[in-house]
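To close the chapter, one final illustration. This time we ask the reader to focus less on the individual chains and more on the assembly as a whole: which components sit near each other, and how the overall shape emerges from the parts.
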Amino acid sequence: MSDFTSSFWPMFITVISVGGVIGCALLLWLTSKIKATSPNGDNTNGHVWDENLREMNNPLPRWWVWMFIITIVFSLFYFAAYPAIGTYAGKLGWTQVNQYEQEMEAANKTIAPLYAKFAAMPIDQLATNPEAKAIGERIFMNNCAQCHGSDAHGSRGFPNLTDKDWIHGGSPEKITETLTNGRVGMMPPMAAAVGTEDDVKNVANYVLSLSNSDHDATRAAAGKEKFAVCAACHGADGTGNQAIGAPNLADNIWLHGAGEEAIIKRINEGKVNQMPAQGAKFSPEQIHVLTAYVWGLSNNETK
Amino acid sequence: MSSKKNSNVKNDASSAGTEATIINLYAAAEKIYPRSTFGFFTKWRWVMIWLTQLVFYGVPWIEWGQRQALLFDLEARRFYIFNLVFYPQDLIYLTAILIISALSLFLFTAIAGRLWCGYTCPQTVYTEIFLWIEAKIEGDRAARMKLDDAPMSARKVLKKGGKHFVWIAFALWTGFTFVGYFTPIRELSDAVANMTLGPWQTFWILFYGFATYGNAGFMREQVCKYMCPYARFQSAMFDDDTLIVTYDEKRGEPRGKASLKTDMDKSKQGACIDCSLCVQVCPTGIDIRKGLQYECIGCGACADVCDTVMDKMNYDRGLVKYSTQHAINLGWDHAQMLRHILRPRVMIYATILSLLVASLFTSLMLRTSFRVDVVRDRGVMARIAEGGMLENVYRLQIMNATESTQRYRLSASGIADLKVESDAADHNKSVTVNPAESRWIPVRLQIPDGSIKSGSHPVAFEVRAIESNETVSEKSVFLVPR
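The assembled structure is written out below.
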């Protein structure tokens, strides 16, 4: 009962629970003592309303009194077994948290064999197992879809998981790693290293030329040299480096927006983007099933 | 009603005069030994007992296709009622049934008092069955009273033991049947035969069996008198034109002993010969000659037994009968009385009731075999997809309420050139949902970027069941950012 910050509430609960029982007992005792009188001796109690409406005694059956007594006795046992009086925890030590944990344990026990079966299966098999897919889909819908979208196609800032373009690697091992530990993608502001505003614009056009997007060929040619500072991470050909999470600039996938303006903004401001770690939330078996689901989104033969 | 004399008078009121006496607030319940009756109302009660109990004990054994016709599967949250399957979403039908039941109670009570109590209430029905068993083993009222007073003997033990044995067997069968509505009864009977009942099945069979045994064997009229809330509020449905079991006081009084030889004209006596049979047959232990009392469950046992006495005395039947306060007080004949049954209260109840029943059936007829819910993705407002398309993402929850696998075709309308895309659907934009399963389907709606102005545009998803051709339409919005 340490959940309460004020000692008022345990007292409040004690007064209500114990007071209620004592009140019931007192009422029973009093009514058993009271002998009402009938002034006329005809089992009416002498009260008259509306000229001639008289109140008649209609005795309660005695078995009902016994039921009251049984409930009082029951409540005493209840007080002893459960937390009802002050900060006393009760003989059974029952708490809501305990009960929740017990139920979770029981539920985990029932699904354990299923997950054990899944854990023993390789990712590519698991990805086509309808049962595992359905479980993976539910985990995804409840935990991943908020950012990556219900269809896992992502949106600006949140990578599309259904294509073959992976920032940190698309192998099952890498996906498991991403899910468990999360990822932080960090691009520093590069404007100072690149040079003047004009240089930045030239580099941006060179980046656009890598994917054959709309660009100014003269500026691109001028920016090629300055791209050397970018190449440290994104590679000389701009195809990125999954080991450090540098995106491929040579494809037509733009996580933070396409076009010259968006690229200039990235060069000037840099970008920190984060995928939160899920390892604490799920068991390794659940991560395994989720990995298979995510891997299956892009490794799907029918596409 | 409250001014009427009460049956629980401990101090004999007639002799007490005006002397003050002590009255007790508690009293031990006195055991009632209802005498068996035969006659019109008793016959109808037995008809109702057979009808209700044939339904109760029989229905769980009916099969429908691969399953039990009537099964309330609480664990799977599905109610199977013949060809229909109900889900928690269909709670409204249960509500409708409860309202219809309540209004029926109002209607029948306004017409003829506590018809439900007297003929169909499980408390009455099981008490009647248990009384019948009791009478078969121990004998009728007098024999039972004598047996209870008799000292312990082998014969008494045998009779009492036999009665309780039959009662318990019957109660356990009732408990078993009750659980059979929630667990397939054929599996349940196998489990009973093989002693492999689960702990909860065992508990509920025993609990319901115990409730039957206790209520029908021991509590009986006390349930109606002290526990039942319907019994109390039904009196609010009564008025002076409600048919109730009534003693014709004008004709009966002054009562007095009489034989076939008594000259009625000379003795100035009423038709009531004070044989007290009406009190002996009463299952709640009241004297109907004191007028309408709250304990009266309207079973008509007193009317039946009085008619047999009247026949023997060569008097007209109907000294105790179903009649209305108006008919008795104003001396109406039968036709006049029946004409007054159709009064505004009855008409209004009947109209509301038939409207409700009609709307329940209409609603059941129009019920689609699947449900659709649309939830728009909140994380993503809109995005640009390949080919310069502006895209919004939705989740469609399709719930297949049938017992077979269904295919559903998705489409959407509301904006020109609206395209539906879904990785979960095939090239026909169709998805498969397993029997009685609900499936989330991510769906993308696309329009050419820049084709409409920014803002929120209403769209509608149409989902068509390919087999049954039913269509469900659900509204949503398509957002176009600035």
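Chain B has two domains: 29-367, 370-480. Chain B touches chain A through 40 residues (CB under 8 Å). With these observations in hand, you are ready for the problems at the end of the chapter.
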